[in-house]
Amino acid sequence: MPIKLANISIKIRKYLQIIFAYYSLINMFYKLINYIKDSRRELKKVVWPTRKQTVNHTLLVIGFSLAMAAFLGAIDFGLNKAVEFIIK
């Protein structure tokens, strides 16, 4: 008799694992659907910049990047010359 009860408990355990896995999969699917719905809802609230604003901000970033590159290049050049002078 104990062998049969052990087999039944193993079968029940397997069925419960299958049910839990199925529930977890369904739950994950619903979470994904809710995430997509929430994302779409939030994107509708966004105030998108105009084309002119986008161009202006892009040019500002490019200009700032070039200015920083020139500044850091000048510092690098100066420090390089200073190190060469000290070494000689």
Tell me the layout of helices and strands.
Layout: H1 2-45, H2 51-87
Tally of helical segments = 2
What number of domains? 2
User: Residue-averaged pLDDT, rounded?
Assistant: 90
Low-pLDDT parts are: none
- What is the terminal-to-terminal distance? 95 Å
* Main sheet attributes: strand count, strand direction, barrel closure: none
Radius of gyration: 32 Å
- Say how many strands there are: 0
Structural class by SSE content = mainly alpha
Q: Which overall shape is indicated by the principal axes computed on the Cα atoms?
A: elongated
Q: How do the helices and strands follow one another from N- to C-terminus?
A: HH
Entry keywords:
elongated, 88 residues, 2 domains, mainly alpha, single chain
Put the structure in a nutshell.
With 88 residues, the protein is mainly α. The protein contains 2 helices and no strands. The chain is elongated, with a radius of gyration of 32 Å.
Question: What does this 3D model show about the protein?
Answer:
The chain is mainly α. 92% of the residues lie in helices and 0% in strands. The model has no long low-confidence stretch (mean pLDDT 90). The protein is built from two helices and no strands. It is elongated. The protein has helices at 2-45, 51-87.
